[in-house]
Every structure is written in structure tokens, then in C-alpha cells.
Amino acid sequence: MGVVIESSVWEPNTSLYIFLFFACCSSIFLFPYASNSWKTPVLFDHGNSSSFLRFQRSFLLVYSLASVMEGLWSVFGEFELASYGASREQMVVSLCVGYAAALFVGTFFGVLSDLIGQKKVCLIFCILHLLVGMWKRIAEHQSILVASICLSLANSIFSFSFETWMVIQHEKQGHRLDILNDTFWLMTFFESACLIGSQMFANWLLGNNVEKSTVFSTTAIFLAIICIIFLARGWKENPQTASFKEYTMSFYTYIFGDKRVWLLAWAQACLHFSIAIFWILWAPTIVADGREAHLGLIYPCFLGSRMLGSSAFPWLISGPSALRTEDCLVYGFSILGVVLSIVAYDYQEIGVLVALFCFFHVCVGIILPSLARLRTLYVPDELRGGMMSLSVAPPNVAVLLFFDERRI
Predict the structure, then answer these.
(1) Can you give the residue ranges of every domain in the chain?
(2) Which CATH class is domain 14-37+50-407?
(3) pLDDT tens string 68-121
(4) What are phi and psi of 3, to 5 degrees?
């Protein structure tokens, strides 16, 4: 008599989604009543400043559209490469080429944005996504390297340009500096929510039919055009008139000459590297040793955890027991180190791994707005884009070395 071994596919409990949803909602809607000031009984009221609310909502709308575009390509990327018959080695090469493009070209987009204006570079971001969508529609023999380069450059722009543009416009329109904190954590919150929405939208578009990829490219083109229209009709900006030599001297004085900015840049670099390595290794780690899991159901748990962390940020800096932003970073990075150490040096079951990875993203959701707040305090607005893009260069080098080590 044969023995039948049943294999089960692990998937998150539905209660986890419910917990994350209600925890985020409770954190957002209860905060105004628990803040130290007790002066904001209505969520995001800010003294009934209608001009600020219009400014914030218009920016978050554009930022959300950009996040959806980023999310669509990231969800479809590996599936698309597999449908073309790309091997694992070819996928790794495409990733390496993308990181190399981000290192040697994307690094200097921040300096370019400081010189010519953030709005123009944000438009370049949309144009890159538009080109990728059109390339996939019209090219008979598509090159995965072309798409990888364009999307990596777009991701580099996304990491700094929208935030810098928002901060500059916030100050130019005369809004209070303290209410920037809400926009910072809302950026992380909306970006994570849009990435979840991108996954659902991409799955709905594609289903199990690879031939629907043309519909997917058309959708990406449509979103890119909408974003271009919003950006073109958005806030006006006056790029700085300083020459490149004057900009370089200011950069050397305020960025290279300030130890606080150096420390902030390295903190951002470490976070960027850890996030990049996480998204490369999380799926192979979970399905190691032949284990099976619904990865598509686990992915929203991570982003939901990041939303929870971002919604907890105002509690930490303005709640009943307010902490300094620097303390939030110390605690956040410490927990990240502990979580990754457990994963690296001890074998864990899938449920424990998912819980640890969720803790990882809760800390990421706290750290991202904390870094943005410190950049506002220590980095001049006219140098912010260059500082942010240059700080991403070391982790890009580290990721390329990681790939080279894995190949060897």
C-alpha cells in the first residue's frame, strides 16, 4: 500500500489582513485626540488651512500616480521575463545592468534636478515610463536590458525628486514647517497602499493570460500620460540661477563639510541597501528547502506593515510620550538589525519568517519619514536632490558586489 504525502501551500491567515487594516485606521483616526497639542480634533485640519490642504492633496495625488506606475512594472517584471523564456542568469544580468545604470547615471540626476528644477526631472520620470510602455508595444524583439535601464533610472528619480519638489514648494508657498511631518509619513503610507493596489490591478489585468501584456503596457502608457498632464499643469518653479561651480562649492561646504549630513546620508544608504537585498532574497528565503507558499498573498502583508509603521510615526514624535526623531532612528535601526540577524543565523518556519519580515517593514515605515524630517532640518533645499541621489550610490555598489559574489 502506497503512502500519500500531502503537501500544503502556506498562506497568511485572513486575520492578519484585518489586523493591519484596523490598526492603520485606528492609528490615523485616534491620533488627533491623543496628540500633545489637542488642537487638531479633525484629521489633518491644520487650522483649517485650505491652501495647505489643496497643496498636500494635489501632491499626494501625483505621488500616488507615480507610485502606481512604479508598482505595476515591479509586479509584472519577473512574470514578464519568465514569459519571454528568460533564464535565471539573464534575469540576474538585467538586474545588474539596472543597478549599474542607477549607479553611473541615476546618481547624478539629483544634482541635475537641483540645477534645472525638480519639475523637469519628475517629467523625465514619467517620460521614461512612457518610453518603456511604448517600447513594449511596438518592438517586435524586445530587449529586457532597455526596459531594465529605463525603469532603474526612473526608480532613481522617484527616490528623491518628488520629495524634494514638494519640500521646496511647501516653503515657497509659505506653509508652516512643522506640518511637513504629516506629508512625509503620508508619502510612505500612500506609496505602500499604491503598491498593494498595483499588485491587485496587475493581477486583474493579466489573470493567467500572458497575451494580455499588451493591455498592461497600454495601461502604463495611459497612467504616464495622466501623470505628465498633472505635472505640466502643476506648481510653477524657478530653478536656481547658481552656476555649476557655485553649486559645487555650496555642496562641498554644506554636505561634505557637515558631519551630521554625512551620518544622515550613510543612514539612508544603509536603509536603501537593506531594502534592496530584502526584495531580492525574501521569496527564495521563504520557499527554501522545497517549501511552498502563496507569495502573492504575503507581499501585501509587508506593505501593510509599512503602512502601519508610517501611521505610527506621528504618535512617536508628537504623541503622549514624544521621542526625538534621532531616537526613532536609533530604535528603528536597532530592531532592523535584530530582525535580520535572526533571519540570517537561524532557520525559521514560514510563519515566523513572515512575522519577522513584517516587523522589518514596520520599522522601515517609521525610518523613512524620520530621515525625511532630518533632511529638512540639516540639508539646504537647493542641495537636497543631490544629497539624496549621491547617498544611494554606495548601496548600489554594494548590491552589484553582492550579485558578483553570488555569481562566483
Answers:
(1) 14-37+50-407
(2) mainly alpha
(3) 998 887 776 666 666 666 677 777 888 889 999 999 998 999 999 998 888 999
(4) -100, 125
